[in-house]
Amino acid sequence: MNKPIALPWSAAQSAELYGIREWGNNYFSISDKGDVTVSVAFAEGDVTLSLMDILSGIRQRGVPLPMVLRIENILESQIARLNNAFADAMESSGYQGQYRGVFPIKVNQQCQVIETLTQFGEQFSHGLEAGSKAELIIALSTLTPDGRLIICNGYKDEEFIDLALRAQRLGFHCVFVLETPTELPIIIERSEALGIRPKIGVRVKLSSKVSGLWNSTSGDRSIFGLTTNQLVEVIDNLKAHNILDCLELLHYHLGSQIPNIRDIRNGVLEACRYYVDLVKEGASMGYLDLGGGLAVDYLGARSNHEHSKNYSLAEYCTDVVEVVMSTLDANDIPHPHIVTESGRATVAYSSMLLFDILDVTHFEAAPLPELLPQQAHELIHNLQAVLENIAPKALQECYNDATYYRDELNELFKRGQINLRDRSLGENLFLEILQQIKSLVSDFHRVPPELDGLKEYLADIYYGNFSVFQSLPDIWAIDQVFPVLPLHRHNEHPSREAILADITCDCDGKIDRFLDPESRDFRTTLPLHPMVDEEDYIIGVFLVGAYQETLGDLHNLLGDTAVASVRINEDGSFDLVKELEGDSIADVLSYVEYQPQGILENFRQTAEQAVRSGKISAVERRKLLECFTDSLRGYTYYEGQMTETD
Ligand SMILES: *Cc1c(COP(=O)(O)O)cnc(C)c1O
């Protein structure tokens, strides 16, 4: 490989290239030293730490890569920002109700996340949203019965309903949100049997449609929520049982990651119409629950692109408050408490996935022979001729010719008419042609569209020690884009263009879409630094705190990564508050119903037979079994060598 030419480069240029100021939400930035930093606010001002310094401290304590690094301060800060933004919007407009947020547990169920959120959220009365029995159990065991909301969504059976009703006796504020009319008779029957008045909400299907990736939850055909007919039926049923005053909440959820503020306003407006009529029907009401949808600007584009959002948190709150006030004031109805179920925006920022690069493949020609062999195929001579005649004015023609000859050679190889060495020589000439074209295109980042494919074809593959399927399932499942960048070396020019491959050997196990601050859209390769021998190169995937941690699967039996939760202190130090070991190989094998003990037993017997038949010695058997048991206990990811100083 050619020695890279070191261009002058600065941390500021890196910040621009990776768009960190745009998506970092004032948490992430790049220091003059060239490290990615994290900043958290304290009364006396911000404290900023290098992520490389945090990482090295955690690795010294024994947590291996890959890992999810969680910054507890950010979790808390996001809860504070959300509550303060609503409080500010309400105060400045004279709103009479309060903001009563809930965190939807499904977005990140990790015990430690829920504990941090609920402890810190106490000062704001921030509650929880539970979509299943298991999540209700989490809510009841982490909250104290202090009246914070527990919004019960999802299908509720008798057991679920009994539990929530009895919990109400302790002082928990559980609201049953009706998803279908069939839940109501069970709620009525159980509350009469237990003598406990239920707190009821209704989930409506709004006809407002929203754009974005998750928009199928919106509109008339949305699978969740009551139709207007069903809502009328519910009201009549409540009236008939004399419990219309138990109806206190109206809920809707238009879907996650709503990029356009107009859609948000439209949803609130339509919901307010329902709210007004429910009050007029005689329901007590008091709460208006707007569900989730508050977006995260993964692209940093501030646009209505599906991975972005065209509004700030302050605008979101102001708009919601304004629409509610104007609709209800016109009808002389008191302002309700506003509930939102923001999950993504609350937790996305706090976690990042960190991994090391294990290997790189470059697509560069091996040294070419001075002279082509006499008997070389005509197509190879043609490629040689293209190479000798590359002209800056005819790049596209050269590119097309080279591609044609290369494809023809591949065809001949398939038919057995040329051999492996011929094909390799042809491939080499082709790569050399592409490299020369590339060097003639002055700015490789902006490759002309007629040279379509050139950039992707020449991109390096950086192999990262992680699994997309386990740690970043949305990249694979729904083409989610997350900010990705190296944690260090930002004073050096990132001269390579690369895609990232994981270690699953699956062709989908890769990241090949990245944000492009310049075009405010995607790009297909990521600028990275050339690897330096014997030095770690650490990549961070950011904003992965929402939805990624429990959706992941065990593709190739790569298990959960280690998790390190860190709290940054005011004096600039940090504590490793909690560490979770990643899955061992024995763990993942047991998930698919193998018994690690039985596996070991089988292998012992195979080894024993080998000793008996003289294939190996008794000592070799012991060594082999040690190796086997070490592997069973080992991490499912690539384990690097730890040195004394590491
Ligand atoms: C998923 C979900 C949420 C969370 O949405 P975010 O966009 O992550 O804030 C809220 N409410 C309901 C009912 C959900 O299903």
Question: Any overview of this molecule?
Answer:
- The chain contains 22 helices and 23 strands.
- α7 crosses α8, α13 packs parallel to α15 and α14 runs antiparallel to α15.
- Among the domains are: 278 residues, Alanine racemase (TIM Barrel, Alpha-Beta Barrel), CATH 3.20.20.10; 78 residues, Methane Monooxygenase Hydroxylase, Chain G, domain 1 (Up-down Bundle), CATH 1.20.58; 49 residues.
- The longest helix is centred in the N-terminal third of the chain and has 22 residues.
- The strands form 4 sheets. Strands 4, 13, 14, 15, 16, 17, 20, 21, 22 and 23 form a 10-stranded mixed β-sheet that branches. An 8-stranded parallel β-sheet has the order 5-6-7-8-9-10-11-12.
- It is of the alpha/beta class.
- Bound molecules: pyridoxal-5'-phosphate.
Task: Give a short synopsis of this structure.
The chain contains 22 helices and 23 strands. Strands 4, 13, 14, 15, 16, 17, 20, 21, 22 and 23 form a ten-stranded mixed sheet that branches.
Topology overview:
Layout: H1 11-18, H2 20-23, E1 28-30, E2 36-42, E3 45-50, H3 51-60, E4 67-71, H4 72-93, E5 102-104, H5 111-121, E6 127-130, H6 133-142, E7 149-152, H7 158-170, E8 173-178, H8 183-194, E9 200-203, H9 228-240, E10 247-251, H10 261-281, E11 287-289, H11 313-329, E12 337-339, H12 344-347, E13 351-361, H13 378-388, H14 395-414, H15 420-440, H16 454-458, E14 460-464, H17 468-471, H18 473-478, E15 484-486, E16 496-501, E17 510-511, E18 514-516, E19 521-523, E20 526-528, E21 538-541, H19 548-551, E22 562-568, E23 574-580, H20 585-591, H21 596-612, H22 618-633
Parallel strand pairs: 4-22, 5-6, 6-7, 7-8, 8-9, 9-10, 10-11, 11-12, 14-16
Antiparallel strand pairs: 1-2, 2-3, 4-13, 13-14, 13-21, 15-21, 16-17, 16-20, 18-19, 22-23
Bound molecules: pyridoxal-5'-phosphate.
The site of pyridoxal-5'-phosphate has 16 residues, from loops.
